[in-house]
């Protein structure tokens, strides 16, 4: 459920971007719906609504939600005001690099790494396993940020948007899925109680 909520603003951004630009009248005010700048406005508004709703219901945002919201605000407002997509193009790289710094910093401010804080209660793996995975996530976020930056400034707007919405999702899913065999050996499976009676004759 949490992952679904986090993806709503990006999904809305993509939908609005795909619309052909058209002027609509809302309470006597002309608004241009569709295109990159309208999509940025909807991304900003939807992010505030989604994360604001989470904060009101849970009385908190986790670190990744807070970082995401801050980066969205800092990227979208100048994009909308200056009509310059360069600000928005820095959103994904900066977010990924901030995540990398957060994972790196967790090793110095806590006994547990960031990934252990996230998954340690579900998977009782040794501390060294979590430290190794934490390092892998740092490398992943660093590289993904660089890839997003290259795609944003070297490819077309359409390719950038599609990579931003779908490419990042697929890459992250495959990256997480690839770790499952490594972690599965530490997942405790309750043993079935043996029957007191012998096998049927």
Strand order of the largest sheet: 1-2
Number of strands: 2
Specify the overall morphology: elongated
Mean pLDDT: 88
Q: What's the quaternary structure here? A: single chain
**Rg estimate, integer Å:** 22 Å
How much of the sequence lies in strands comes to: under 5%
Q: Counting H and I runs of at least 4 residues, what is the number of helices?
A: 8
Estimated structural class: mainly alpha
Helical percentage: over 70%
* Terminal residue distance: 49 Å
The stretches of 5 or more residues where confidence is low (pLDDT under 50) are 193-201
| N to C succession of SSEs | HEEHHHHHHH
Largest sheet: 2 strands, antiparallel
* Count of folded domains: 2
Structural account:
With 201 residues, the chain is mostly helical. The chain folds into two domains: 1-88, no CATH class; 90-186. It is 72% helix and 5% strand. It contains eight helices and two strands, in the order H-E-E-H-H-H-H-H-H-H. The protein has a two-stranded antiparallel sheet. Helix 3 (63-82) runs antiparallel to helix 5 (91-109). The longest helix is centred in the C-terminal third of the chain and has 28 residues, at 127-154. The chain is elongated. The termini are far apart. The relative contact order is 0.08. Residues 193-201 have low confidence and may be disordered.
